[in-house]
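At your convenience, could you comment on the folded chain following this short note?
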Amino acid sequence: MEYQVFALKWRPQDFDEVVGQEHIITNLKNAILKNRLPYAFLFSGPHGVGKTSVARILAKSLNCQQGPTIKPCQKCSNCIEITEARSLDVIEIDGASNRGIDEIRALRENVKFAPTKSRFKIYIIDEVHMLTTEAFNALLKTLEEPPSFVKFIFATTQPHKVIPTIISRCQRFNFKRIPLNKIIQQLKKIITQQNIQLSDEILLSIAKASQGSLRDAESLLDQVISFKGEKLSTEEVISVLGMVEIEILFSLTDLIIQKDPQGLIKFLNKIIQEGKDLGVLLSNLIEHFRNLLIARISKQDFSILDLPLEVSQRLYQQSQAFSVEELISFFNALVNIQEMTKKIDSLSIPLEVGLIKLCYQKKSTSKENVLLSQERELSTPTVDKEETKKVTTDKEELENDPKESASTDSIIKLEEISEHWSEVIDFLKEKKMSVASYLQGGILKEIKNNDTLVIAFAKDNSFHKEFLEKKENREIIEKAIESIFKVRLKLNLVVSKEETAKKEENPFIKSILETFNARPINREL
């Protein structure tokens, strides 16, 4: 059997199968049920969002032998012929290739003849904005006084190019870009029906690349599967689509937050060596800062972002390290970098210089920005009862003089770990920037029972602890410690009642204070 691409195979055949255009479908169904149908429709909107598909469904609904109906039978000869684009009474015209006055004059002559066997003669003119002014004028008379058995459905991606006198004679329906989550749902439906297994990250990458066009998303899904079958990694898919991993965008932004230009340039060079397209990277970084700005002002209304919940939450957490003014300034700076790349024969140089500038542009005058930016990142809503119980237990353990349980002959001394702790942080930056950032908020407390490193977090910093206790994050830290110190230690992350000011005892906090000429603050004052 001949292969059929997904965009055709999964084309909607009735109103209930249309994705992301509920407002259009509701209006059309009501018009059919109440028999209040105009003689001319104008479907406008971006490409690949269902304009022509809905036009065909509407034609079937009107000409179905069981109709007019909001649920065409799909079995009668009229429905089958319209689906296969061979109905004599539903004429599809490409406005781009039939744009002249002669073609429209021929249409005007044919309009007079009744349909051969259907209820209506329906003209679907795609990309109607391509018609010449003379052709539009020739169409006007027919639109003013059409025969009762004629319906016109015009589709266009550029409604502003359709002359006002034509628009005024049509009932207009504005199609919108399809939300990202709805595209992902449709892609999941397709791969489930096709017995194909792809990760959520891959589907997210495809949906983002489609930019709101379901047809493009289905075509990209075809392309991805053709590239390497079902055994695809997220990195391979992103390479095929010419995109940049979202983790790279978060990591670059973390380096800007930390004012670490050296680390940023090392990370950028690594990206270049991996063959990433710097133009795509810059465009995606601009979009990332736009998303951070929206997340910053969203007050956790993640529907505005149109991204999966997990990604939206990460954006919100990271956005808390910036003020709104900073995000606007950084967005404009990135756009200026993009403009600069057009003036000089290089992408890497303006990108490197621009990102270094952003590092120094990140303001740290606010005491809260200096010491508590990471705490604000983790404004995660609630902690369940089990986690609350666990935190309470940890706090009690620490308060009951934890030094009593410390081993006096540890295989490695706490002082040695403390002296080289910065190497662990640097190691983690290469693996997962967020883990490195959050771990810096902890205080090295003791080595317990000869095999457990106790790290304490202030009570107003407990969300750091919860984030790092996730299995994958804990394993990354333990492997980093083993790699640096050549000993295997388990982690025990606890909450301490110590005053925030005592964080100054941590050498890494002291380093931060010295760098920014700052002092710790007590949130309770």
User: Anything to note?
Assistant: The two ends are 75 Å apart (CA to CA). The chain has 25 helices and eight strands. Residues 364-410, 501-508, 510-517 have pLDDT under 50 and may be disordered.
